[in-house]
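Example record

The entry below shows one chain as it appears in the dataset: sequence first, then structure tokens.
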Amino acid sequence: MHWQPTHDCMRKDPSSHLTLHAVAAVVPELLEMLVREDMGVDAKGARRILKESNKIGNLLNLE
């Protein structure tokens, strides 16, 4: 079975899959790395901080 793009942007521009990969994989890894460095914590601590930050952000931005 061949994978078919589901987003119109990917049908129009096949190279956009790289952008989607960056958003889905690279950006979260980079964010974790920056939190680790800035806060002086290990990977587990960085993920905990990001999880708590996400909860606060969701509460502040209720729609």
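Notes for this example: The chain has a mean pLDDT of 83. The first helix runs from residue 8 to 12.
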